[in-house]
Structure prediction request, 66 residues.
Amino acid sequence: MKKYIFITPEGTTFSPNGNEVENMQVIGVVEDVSNENEAYKKLLIENEWIIDSEFNVAEFICYEVL
Prediction:
């Protein structure tokens, strides 16, 4: 079984001095799936807050963790 991490360019982050900083944010990690499509499904089923927060899942970047 495989493990995947999902990141997104959406959202904002602030530095300790209060400046807005561009970065990528980790959305979640999914384990025990056989492929990337299963990982997307499992991520969204187990984390309803992603849709509730109106993230654009088409913007997600998925990497297999080796």
Observations:
- The mean pLDDT is 95.
- Residues 1 and 32 are 5 Å apart (CA to CA).
- The longest helix spans residues 36-46.
